[in-house]
Design goal:
The protein is about 65% helix and about 0% strand. It has helices spanning about 5-20, 25-40, 50-55.
């Protein structure tokens, strides 16, 4: 399996888990949480907020 298929499988599992939650989450929060979880898998070494900003696609606003 290549990396993109593994990440897509992980994204599917995370979205299923978030869909099963009893609390209703906003779409923006779900997408932010999914992106953060994937960045934790992709970024090598120690992770800080600068790296999350650098590798991620969401901005501060």
């Amino acid at each position: 399996m290549d990396r993109t298929s593994i990440l897509n499988q992980y994204r599917g599992i995370c979205s299923d888990v978030l869909g099963e939650l009893t609390t209703k989450l906003n779409k923006s929060f779900k997408s932010f949480l999914m992106e953060t979880l994937i960045l934790y898998l992709v970024i090598p070494g120690r992770i800080n907020f600068l790296q999350l900003w650098r590798y991620g696609k969401s901005c501060e606003q």
